[in-house]
Amino acid sequence: MNSRKIILSVLGVLLIIGSFFGAKKIIDSKKTPRPRPEKVIKTVFVEKVKNGNVPIVVPANGNLVAKRRVELYAEVQGIFRPGKKLFKPGQEYRKGEVLIQIDPAEYYASVQSAKSNLYNLITSIMPDLRLDYPEVYGKWQRYLANFDLEESVPDLPEMASEKEKYFISGRGILSNYYNLKNMEQRLSKYTIRAPFNGVLTEALVTEGSLVRSGQKLGEFINTSSYELEVAISKSYSDLLKVGEVVELRSIDEAKTYEGTVTRINGRVDLGSQTINAYIEVNNPNLREGMYLEAYLKAKEETNAIEVNRSLLTENGEIFVVRDSVLDLVPVNPVYFSDEKVVLKNVPEGLSIVSKPVMGAYSGMLVKVYKDQETNKEDQ
Q1: What range(s) does the Multidrug resistance protein MdtA-like barrel-sandwich hybrid domain occupy (predicted)?
Q2: Cα separation of 337 and 295, whole Å?
């Protein structure tokens, strides 16, 4: 009985050991060898260096302002009389047309009274002139004959002798004449005419309202010519020239215009250390207040190239490809814009990386994009 138990125990142990080795063999048979990772070679885009003249373009921006504008102010007081055209913003006027007519009736009567007084005063001296100064009587007689109360007072006859001048002045004729000329000059201020062809951009009064002396009435501009005031760095002040052609762009409409630098301020702004330049532009599609960007050609950099700023490293180097290996070449950046940088001292014909490569380093193995090489050969 005991021997039977021993045999069964030995068989059980052997069965367990056999099961263990069998399971291990099955597990080992299912293991597959891990594949060795392949080395990834990045593809890069390159371009050959061709040094040449690179224009340095300085960007600036501003709002258009009419080159010729007039702020209308009243120098006299009275009622604003209606005219042939409504005094409203957007109304066009030709040169010489009446912009504003202030009722001059009361002052006009004063001017006519002064004219009559001068006429009567000259008439009163005619008998004395005929007796004492017969040689000048004729010209004064002709003056009275041409004196029209409805017209502007004519210029006094030229006085040839001191005696004549003393006589005329002593009778108060000169003082009355110049007072009348002054009154006529003031009378002309009741009518404001357009100094040039243009458009009314602001109207602060309406017909029938009382206009007071010194009151602003509106603004009038010439729409044929505009100016763009831009601020540029003082470092380019000696490079800009009057007469330089400038490209202007409208951001919202994506249109381009051509302007000309007409003036350059000689004073540097103390706060921003910039100089104001004024660009004249003529185009019927432009309006005052439009926002434009200007691109001023300050100068040309010789023997240089222009690349994206992202290609320049912090140490002033760029990546090149030599025998399918990346290498770093030191360069001399001479001008930075928002997106571009102008470089000098780049060897001619060198293959530089034209698009940034993630994780690039000197000695990195790369391959050049084949389609790019094919396209370049076709070109």
Answers
A1: 68-217
A2: 11
For Cα atoms 372, 351, 331, give the angle at the middle one, nearest 5 degrees: 140
Q: What is the mean pLDDT of residues 344-359?
A: 86
pLDDT the model gives residue 35 = 57
pLDDT higher than threshold 50 for residue 373: no
Pairing of β 366-368 and β 42-44: parallel
Nearest one of 278, 294, 276 to 226, comparing CA atoms: 278
Following CA atoms 50, 55, 58, 62 in sequence, which dihedral angle do they give, to the nearest 10 degrees? -120
* Residue partners of 306: CB distance under 8 A and separation at least 6: 54, 340, 341, 342, 343
Per-residue pLDDT tens for 255-308?
889 999 999 888 888 888 888 889 999 998 899 999 998 887 777 788 888 888
Q: List the structure tokens of 256.
A: 């381009």
In contact, 121 and 173? CB cutoff 8 Å? yes
